[in-house]
Design goal:
metal-binding, mainly beta, Neuraminidase, SMP-30, SGL, four-stranded antiparallel sheet, 24 strands, calcium ion binding, single chain
Length: about 290
């Protein structure tokens, strides 16, 4: 019997992104980018909570009991999210964008807890390769460029040992995934090479890596999530009842539930589930995210 993606809750996100499982409180947290909202779901209780943000957050990552946020103009921090309490992000490191109209997009902590995130021009129709992948330094509170010449950086993930970094460019003119060797001591990628030249259908969006080192990538525009082995072989395909799947993350008590966010385009048909969030149990287990200490 194939794993079935089941809808979670009734929200419809404009751009649901960056789901993160926090094992300490057994919750998923994610961002709805254009609606400037953080969401949290507790599978055990079934409860949802949300927090308004002052600006768009393209990605989030754990920082102690709180969070790091890649927002429109830089990397921010916020304290632990408490019910009925507002979220007040504080700027840690501003970003010098290469062009107007940019924001942070996909990002996460590496296996050592360093925050890595990419930027993009929000108007994808411009196809402007002004995006960059940055590493945030907690000690210096600044940003270092790791990769440039990106249109829509996405699909960022790290192998279980942290020595391979995956990165996609989800713009239709590129739509491919690279692998890099990753220096775990310095947090520097090198030796970029093609990993997935093209998905069977759709464009590569957000991603996760499981405990076996396999790479899970959302096929945006295709309603699919694909699992690739570390040598780049397509291993499994799962269908999601939303065309524009955005990002996936493992979690749950056994780290065996794949949580999937999606995007609701302006032309979504009435009743379409684009923008909903889903969960499925594909028979694989994920890895807990590393929290940043600084």
């Amino acid at each position: 019997m194939p794993a079935i993606a089941e809808r979670v809750g009734d929200m419809l996100c404009g751009v649901g992104e960056s789901p993160v499982w926090r094992a300490s409180d057994q919750t998923y947290t994610w961002t709805d980018i254009p609606n400037k909202t953080l969401w949290r779901w507790s599978p055990a209780s079934g409860e949802f909570a949300q927090w308004a943000l002052p600006r768009m957050a393209g990605c989030i990552a754990m920082r102690g009991a709180g969070w790091l946020l890649g927002m429109e103009d830089g990397v921010y921090e916020c304290d632990a999210l408490l019910p009925d309490a507002p979220c007040h992000p504080r700027l840690l490191a501003p970003v010098a964008h290469a062009a107007p109209g940019m924001r942070f997009n996909d990002g996460r902590n590496d296996r050592q807890g360093r925050f890595v995130a990419g930027t993009m021009v929000m108007d994808m129709g411009r196809a402007l390769a002004a995006g960059r992948l940055y590493r945030y330094s907690a000690s210096a509170r600044d940003l270092t460029v790791l990769v440039d010449d990106l249109i829509v950086p996405n699909g960022l993930a790290f192998s279980p040992d942290g020595k391979t970094m995956y990165l996609s460019d989800s713009h239709p003119s590129r739509a491919l995934v690279w692998a890099f060797d990753y220096d775990v001591d310095s947090g520097t990628p090198h030796n970029r090479r093609p990993f997935i030249a093209a998905l069977p259908a759709g464009r590569p969006d957000g991603a996760a890596v499981d405990a076996d080192g396999c790479y899970w990538i959302c096929g945006n525009d295709a309603g699919r999530v694909y699992r690739y082995t570390p040598d780049g072989r397509l291993d499994q395909t799962y269908t999601v009842p939303a065309r524009k799947v955005a990002m996936c993350a493992f979690g749950g008590a056994g780290m065996d539930t794949l949580f999937i966010t999606s995007i609701r385009p302006a032309d979504a048909a009435p009743g379409a589930l684009d923008g909903a969030v889903f969960a499925l149990r594909p028979g694989a287990r994920g890895l807990e995210e590393t929290a940043s200490a600084g």
